[in-house]
UniProtKB/TrEMBL annotation:
Domain of life: Bacteria
Pfam family, one: Y1_Tnp
Name by which UniProt lists this protein: Transposase
Origin organism lineage: Bacteria, Bacillati, Cyanobacteriota, Cyanophyceae, Pseudanabaenales
InterPro entries cross-referenced by the UniProt entry: RAYT_transposase (IPR052715), Transposase_17 (IPR002686), Transposase_17_sf (IPR036515)
Native species: Pseudanabaena yagii GIHE-NHR1
Annotated ranges, domain Transposase IS200-like: 21-149
Amino acid sequence: MSYNPEIHHRRSIRLQGYDYTNAGIYFVTICCYQRQHLFGEIDNGEMKINAIGQIVSNLWQKIPQHFPNVELDGFILMPDHLHGIIIISESKEKSSLANIIQNFKSISSRKINRINKSYGISIWQRNYYERIVRTEQELKNLREYIENNPANWTDRDTE
């Protein structure tokens, strides 16, 4: 099927006109391709990370090594997605949120595919969800949400 802009349009989920290189706090959710359960399982309200999940978790923790103006806050890896809080500080070196996420997804996909000997397989959905954190209370609520996420898990595949 050839490209038809009436059918094949993608709306941006980013905030129109916002500069994502701005210093700020961002809550992100990144989902596995087709919501595959790649990273482990929830057992009795606790996330049990498998080997692939450990790779993803380790690479997430290394984001500040690649982006010196980035700090990480709350983080949780779930069977088919992750939630994390990224803090971008003022810097001469501008790092956009999109560049940070793209770098993380690219590195983790290559590493997982190399280990699985399955080159070119999609690990992540094409996009990601982000929310600009504007208040201290919102940050506190998001930290609690991340911490409680495994206990609130319902497996969509069994519903």
